[in-house]
Amino acid sequence: MSVNAVKLVAAREVREQLRGRALWISTALSVIAVALLVIVPKALAGGPPTYHVGVTASASGDVKAAVADAVESTGAKVTIVSIAGRDDAEAELRSGDSRHIDIAVLTAGVGTVLVDRAFSPDSTARKSLAARAIARAVSVANAIEASGVPDSTARALTNPAPLPIDHLRPAPASSGQRGVALAGAIVFYILVLRYGFGLLMGVVQEKATRVIEVIVSAVRPVDLLTGKVVGSTAMVLSQAAIIVATVLISARAVGSDVIAAAGAGAIGVAFVWVVIGFLLYAALFTAAGSLASKAEDAQSVSLPLQIPLFVGYFASFTALGGDTPNTLVRVLAYIPFTAPMNMPVLAATGGATSWQVGLSMAITVAAIVIAVRVAAVLFNRSILRTGRRLKARDVLREGRRASQATNAAAPPLA
């Protein structure tokens, strides 16, 4: 293999890709779509609500602290406002100006928690949860204060250390890790279809226009195959890097916690799967292009590669629907053609450990080596053949028969 020839072919492949308008349009659409996926959920979710809670001015510091802790335990923020009594509380609950309060805590007598409108008994609204938490917290604070029991003892009795929670199975991955796994499968699927078919159609067009004959006269077929794969892989790496950078920049700009929830490791693993998976498909799509003689043959020669791609892609969605991955995904996670989409999903749903992910990657890398060798043989034997569409099985058999004939014709060694 000539390194210089491979570099020349790879550079030519990159230039051809950059000249096409489709690349720039697809890249722009991908960047916009990824940015919106990060920004829109954050914009719709907003931040935690802030409740203005009116507390009787005569309330002790312990009661006010209990109110603040109760509201914050529901995930909301709190602002404590002093009120004179019930009349003041009713006026501020009904007001719509800056003096408005959401909840009032009256400490006179046994105490009361007052709201403007009653909550249904089964309400799970945040304001309802906050009001109920305040009612419990103030009741406990009043009981402690009235009991005369030392504060530290009372706190230990009312808030004992919780029992440890043991488990039989490890916790599933976070929603962020599941999202990264699914996003990786989608990106992989799109890039393979985009660049894999681009490689295939490029070879078909070069064969149909006889340009391939000129190229092969200057570059060996194996160098041409390798250069095309290297050039397309470089483009995939660039586009994947742009997508990852878009996610990072968008998350930082809007303060999204998507990266923290998913973890940089999950993003890195998804990136590696996209790269090694594309290498496998790129070699085979390029070889498939050499079997076709005209554009009409492209669909039929690529069908054996499309089937595992479609199966793996749609199976990755089914795995995220439940807590336990199904048997199909467990099997597909170790098949090289589907592992780039299904192993990240299997790991995200708790169905695979680190060593199993490594094993699946090793199997895929070994498959890449075999696929490149087979692709080189097919490409070398069929790239200059035109006319009818060739079958991979026939091309490989012809080569085997030719080798056997050569060995039979060779004179015996003295």
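Second entry:
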Amino acid sequence: MKVAISMRSVHEPLLQGELSVLDFLKYAASLAVEGVELDDIYLLGADVDYSEIREVLKETGLRVSCYDIHHQMAPLRDGERDGAAEKIRAELEVAELLGAEHVQIVGETFAPDVAAAEIESLILELVEIVLPSIKGKNLTLAIENPESSAFQSTQMAMLLDRISHPQVKVGFNMANSLVAGEDPEAALERLKDRIAHVRAGDVRLAQQGEEPQSGSYVGCVVGLGLVPLAKLFRSLHLLGYDGWVSLEFAGLEEAFFGTEASLMNLRQYLAELKNEDMHPGEYQGETIEIL
């Protein structure tokens, strides 16, 4: 598996202007990862020269694992679609210019009162906008599994069956499946043949005095929370997944510390998988039952 760093891991420094887009790329390169996950939230309106970004990507050897499309997290109302479509097409041009391998939608949080039918309607609208622009190109549209108890892996699998297009797959977010109220291992099993990109994050229960970020959870250093990361990585490995794993640190700790501690733990998981390959038969995995 190839490791990338998501811009969201250093959300605060980017948001506060302490870190520029070019600074982020150089920081990622200093961590010796293979790629970066870029997000239009941070590029939109920033004083960015895309030729400079391409130059730094070339100099560092970093690849763009995924480019996250920014859009509203509710069905488009009358009069909103044309403006949304124009903005998304512009983002797709940037993604292609920067050599992204995937573009991702549904990366934000839905309000608790948004029903499954509304989520499905939004996804279908977004697919209808994106797909004509990427057909025949070396780009895959990854629909991230949302932090929504109303739209879990079963609904996602059914929707992908309905869309039925080889360039439309899942961006599997390990933490989101837990926050959505389902077993992440079962979610991965349901979506295993449809995964284009993986985002590795972790969460824990918010303590007294902490404001929850999602439901009753807050982010934390990857490997120190409730997401069964070792089992999920092992399942991906057994499936033969050799694509991108993008690290997203979203904890309350200082961003650079949290990112680097998370990366260390992520690399340990992957190193253990390599060790198991060298010593087969030592691990007896648990059987996952899909109800």
